[in-house]
Fold this sequence. Notes:
The protein is α/β, with parallel strands linked by helices.
Amino acid sequence: MHWIATRNAVVSLPRWRSFAFLFRSPFRTHSSLKPSSLLLSNTRYSERTYCLGDRKAVKGISTASSKKVKTKSPDVLTDKDLSHLLWWKERLQTCKKPSTLQLIERLMYTNILGLDPSLRNGSLKDGNLNWEMLQFKSRFPREVLLCRVGDFYEAIGIDACILVEYAGLNPFGGLRSDSAPKAGCPVVNLRQTLDDLTRNGYSVCIVEEVQGPTPARSRKGRFISGHAHPGSPYVYGLVGVDHDLEFPEPMPVVGISRSARGYCMISIFETMKAYSLDDGLTEEALVTKLRTRRCHHLFLHASLRHNASGTCRWGEFGEGGLLWGECSGRNFEWFEGDTLSELVTKVKDVYGLDDEVSFRNVNVPSENRPRPLHLGTATQIGALPTEGIPCLLKVLLPSTCSGLPSLYVRDLLLNPPAYDIALKIQETCKLMSTITCSVPEFTCVSSAKLVKLLEQREANYIEFCRIKNVLDEVLHMHKHPELVEILKLLMEPTWVATGLKIDFETFVNECHWASDSIGEMISLDDDESHQNVSKCANIPNEFFYDMESSWRGRVKGIHIEEEITQVAKSAEALSLAVTEDFHPIISRIKAMAASLGGSKGEIVYAKEHESVWFKGKRFTPSVWGGTAGEEQIKQLKPAFDSKGKKVGEEWFTTQKVEAALVRYHEATENANARVLELLRELSAKLQTKINVLVFASMLLVIAKALFSHACEGRRRKWVFPTLVGFSTDEAANPLDGGATGMKLTGLSPYWFDVASGTAVHNTVDMQSLFLLTGPNGGGKSSLLRSICAAALLGICGFMVPAESAYIPHFDSIMLHMKSYDSPVDGKSSFQVEMSEIRSIVSQATSRSLVLIDEICRGTETAKGTCIAGSVIESLDASGCLGIVSTHLHGIFDLPLTAKNVTYKAMGAQNVEGQTKPTWKLTDGVCRESLAFETAKREGVPETIIQRAEALYLSVYAKDTSSGAVRRNKTETSSDNSHEISKPVSSERRLEKDLTKAILKICGKKMVEPVGLECLSIGARELPPPSTVGSSCVYVMKRPDKRLYIGQTDDLEGRIRAHRAKEGLQGSSFLYLVVQGKSMACQLETLLINQLHEQGYSLANLADGKHRNFGTTSSLPTSDVVSIS
Length: 1124
């Protein structure tokens, strides 16, 4: 048996089958098809190497470009080889397993494999397997090499050590000191081994054998079938199986440098052949990007060695310490020269790419785009998951929305869009909130997965169906009058996300072409009955299913008519052979054998051997040879497996049956090969439109993210803010389009559900910098987080947790909360705080929002107060908006020169002699800290609190009178609310008749039936956001033609629950939005009874008896709707 490993399954192939069809130019560059000008084809997967006994056949490694690579001599090491060996030695030093350490002792670094030729099985003789592996290893020296040898994938030398350390494998031959290091995994465990290696940051080069017969005295041919990288899995063989492949988030190669503008981060994505360049970053923003993006390799430019303190000891003083702390825990390499060109060269070395391969820049130039979030800001509002901090992403999207849409929203929060893109996003969400039509499911496909599968011709039937869903959903939006405007609005956000600029009409036309191309090839209909698996009465159906299910129904029958005919004829011939050779024997046994204890015979499918044989229990042909039916019995012979070994004493076959089996298997093999060839041709055809496919897939990811946010925001009763461009003109009027301040009315903490009524609302009218005071537990930190989150959501185009909001498009939003010490950097908490304050003060402009919580809490009070006062003066001079909260009340006694600072306080009130916080923002100053009350509430011993009070009175008694809040104004509240507001087939006629009946029945019951509308939801569609929180009556049209009638306040959730059940995945729905749950319940019962009387088949008829209304007496006889 031969095996091919895939991610989720292992496919067995018959012993006599030729494997040539599996390797028929799967990665060859087709000269008739030019690759896209933006996404270039990767030529490294074109390589094939055959190391046969005939040395004239192959002298080296041949590629698609016919460029010859000289064979590698084991005795010659170049400078590059030495650098690669040094790289491996550094990684081997981190190994800890005793078995790995013993293998490392046997390595010799005289060749790139680390193999000692003097050890047993370590020979590098020209032409042997080790020599062949050396040639492959020299092509990709920094990848673990796994070479297929029979039923195993083997590794030698350094690679064997890595396998033992990280894949949990045992070395071959134990730990014999005279044997070269060797390890490997069975073919069936390849996927697990690859996952273990890539999870630990290693890339893997996989070498396959050319299966099938091998000439005598010849070595099997081998070729590089593919690579597995962190973030880019091995896809070879996927085209032949109907299993999906989990594709992780791509992991780029990252390079970091520094210039006069700030830090620069370049991310190069090998799969997409693209790079992004972020320049002018702050240290905090750079670290945030590193935290959120796992990278395959990290390269640091020599410019980082010199920091602001003037020392070349990177990270010792001042700026650079935070970045050093982040990078020091990772593997990285230094590089010099031009940052971009040198990094591209490094990437080509890492992945073994040809020099001709180019990378496109996906950055979209935009003016006045806000700066990326600082690390502290991102963590303190939960844009990055942080323990103890409410996660912003979890409240922006419903729990059912995860994966790619969630990643898009996260990246948008961390890198806020430009003003015009934010307006497009907001307008899209607004439209989604008001539409009444059903929406597509928004199929999400990873762009990197799409590119890799089409590039390597490994897209299978499942993936083509998914791609067609993407294209059809785009076309559905284009055809629908309510959705086409949303589609047009999504074009620009998709351009920014992909770096691909495509004209709208061109995009739609290309989607039509690609969808039609897939539809012409892929079998999508259930009416292709001629593609049903063969059936014969005398052969087990399971045999035909196993042999034919891998290729039937994948492509339209018109493309494989000849192959289908040959399979049908060979199946009939096999059935005839079985009937003629086995049936007389079975009949004779049944006629002559005793009912108990006698011989038995039957036709059985030997699944392991993919054959149909005669199985005789207690049956000996030589004994039965003299009886009637002697001719057939004499033809029986023992059955043998693929290795020529006798299967067992009970298994028999005949020469005629074996010949019929060979013919049938050849026919199915040819059919399977033809299907794979057609699928690969389709991949090549679609690759010419790869830019359109990438654009469409990303557009639907964004659409799903915004649709999910609109639904969740509506459920939480959030609102769309008024987003305006920020004006630096002090005399500007907001009505003229320029912003001079920010106003949030009815603001609530984002982590509270406003619909539940538990949140405390605040109104924040900010025209300058606030100096905020308040007691412990009074809500200062919560207010700062809430303002920061609302402002960030607003400039991203999202809904905000408020009753109304007026938000300028800030150029940066910076939030500083409490600081912790950093022992790794040798910095105290106050040093860390000052580092962050330095970054904030140096970047604050008149278009910034700055929020600092409890400034200078980590140092001596007097000097800390003075530093805080100076920071406030600096921020006031910059003209930024923001809040600085503090418990340093001495700041009010300083001779500050700030002119525009407004004093604000968190309110407190006296309740039964105790001061308690109100969590409301007021005007004035609050000098009461509630420190003693807080300590008591947290369980500090009473004796300590009493002593503290005595000490306080003895020293600060003269200041106790100033503990109350000095108010200047009474706060106002606003109760403004915002309401979000083909040819006709028999199936279509049925839907119209059913809609008419529903409206007729419900119209009689409704007190005010005006405006009553029955809307439909297709089989792969979801209800619009306008149904969120509304009472609905729905009718489910099940695939079995029966109806189910129900009512709900969560229509989307109910639809998902129905479709999650077996057999109901393709259900469509009709629904009405009604006033109140009571009316919905009445209409539910009424529809159940009335539709049943009109002849409709109902699945929940019994539910009509649960209430005493909805019977036939509810409507006059003349009003009963009749459907003809």
